[in-house]
Amino acid sequence: MSIERIESVTYGVEDVDECARFFSDFGLTLQEQSPERAVLTTQVGQTVVLRPIDDPDLPPSVEPGSPGIREVVWGVDSQASLEALVADLSTDREVAIDADGVAHTLDETGYGVALAVTKPEDMNFDVRRYNSRGRVERWNESHTAIPQIRPIRICHVALNIPKEGRWEAVHFYLDRLNFRATDIVKPMGVFMQIEGDDDQHNFLLCHRPDRAGTNHTSYEVSGFDDVIEGGNHMIEKGWREARRLGRHTVGSNVFRFIHCPAGGRVEYAADMDRVDDTYGPNVHETTPPHHIWVLETNRDARVPNTSEGSALA
Ligand SMILES: [Fe+2]
To answer: What is the 217 CA–ligand 1 centroid distance (Å)?
Structure first.
């Protein structure tokens, strides 16, 4: 009985078209678009769904009036697993099954939680190859710029929850959906891994003093260059960077964050720690440093992208 991946994330937004443009610029593939609904996909076929903030078919917002995540759909390995999970969830909450067989309910905070049988994953995604002494991945081939970064997959979702009731909120996922706590940062939140994945975290509940809300969604790209180039591309398109390029302490991934008009931020991520059942749960009494490093510079002038400019840089 295994949850394999994040299948889909649904946002309630103020302007579907603008948010579709944002996620297209971010590198997702637009599959459908109308003022009522836009759907974009990652390389492995997960979806980001954008719907109007006041769409009555969405779960109620945990942050009324603000755009943000309304539902996360988790991909389950089989119909039998889905039915077993639904049978358990139905013991203490309403679960609605839609025409596509997707089960919808709410978690302890009020976020929409849905379960769907996962779609087969397309493994034909972009891979960056890197060379170092003793580990050569790229022979007779130059590294080239990619005009449009394409996120491989949604690798994790981070939601803010109120501090009060945080353990009940976390235990819903641990006890009912069989997530595993990997790092418990007592003053900040709980990092969790789903059964069918090996990322250090697929889900993070961050507790905040008083309110729930969207923190971020994270998208794995194929290498460090993609994190940097993806962020550069977003800046060129007029979107706003939320944090300087760096590498996280917990999970270790290289990151770049962009403010998202659909709510919270989105993250390009590369080189996340992979962990198995022998890892954790690590209990941190104090919050570890946010990052191992962030990009520092004392040069603000843009370097011209010409051979002359390169020679001067
Ligand atoms: Fe993240």
So the answer is: 7
